[in-house]
Write a structure and sequence with these properties.
This protein is an alpha/beta fold. It is built from ten helices and twelve strands. A ten-stranded mixed β-sheet has the order 1-3-2-4-5-12-11-10-7-8, with helices on both faces. It has a two-stranded antiparallel sheet with strand order 6-9. The N and C termini lie far apart (44 Å).
Amino acid sequence: MNARQITAIVIVAVIVILSGVLIATQIHGSDEDSKTIGVAWRTNQSSESFVNTVRSLQVAGGNVVILGQVVSYDLDYDSSMKLKEGIDSNGMLDLWAADIIKDTTWSNSNVEDILKDVDFVVFPGGDDISSNLYAEPQEWAGTDEDKQFDPERDVSDYIAMSYCLDKDIPFVAICRGMQMLSVVSGAKMVQDIPTYFEEQSIEYHDEHRNRMPYPGGYRDYASHDVLLTEGSMIHKVMGKTHIQGCPSWHHQMVISVEGTQLKITGLTDTNGIQVIESVQRTDKVCAFGIQYHPEASVVKNLDDIPNKGDYMSYEDAIALFEWIVAYP
């Protein structure tokens, strides 16, 4: 049995166990008097990145709440809180719904109730963001394999993040979360990294997301180093500028923050292309995102997965979650 197969078995077991925990109760952590860390809602709360994020915050000592779904009162939902309108043939928000969300932000939603008792928010990884939500909307340009959208989550995340920014509620955004921070802030996005590299006539070797197939049907994270900007929030969190073996799983990316209030705070060189790996809002007390997945390394080390040495160290991985728990 190879490392990936062992990893897959362990992850499935952890997901099954933690799924029951997440369903049974929303409050985690032993100290009820400590600040409350809200993990932003998603439809599938048994997903690997979601479970690993919650688990990492718990291990760091956090008092964690799984937030409820933020809904827009300008859109129509069914009894299971699925959108009855505003979804195109690819499964993402159509232009009409995306424009409503961008124009109204959080003013006509339940976001104040969802975030009323939360001190800090974490936006975890997950499915692609509907490209119609971009500041410059784009038609779907991917493949059938990449049609992994969650329009209800797009609405929920966009509104929740807009509210956090407006109210200066501190938050950290991971992978998809960093992309949503960039989208909300008006950054320029790329839908598919392999396509982008092909258009630039530059070789690409899956440095940011491994492709199928792998034995046993499980594909692990890609791994690459990240260089952080001195003085940035993520640099202060990590205490170093060079982070080795960052677990990576994305094919959308931020290509430019020009004209926004974002600052690039982390990069990785991919065959001569400087891929953005961390950004922060310069106008907020604590609003930053990272493109990689430290929670994956936390769990690999906790569960002693054989290939844990292929990724960032436990000390580097847990540092972000310990910082969140200790903030401010």
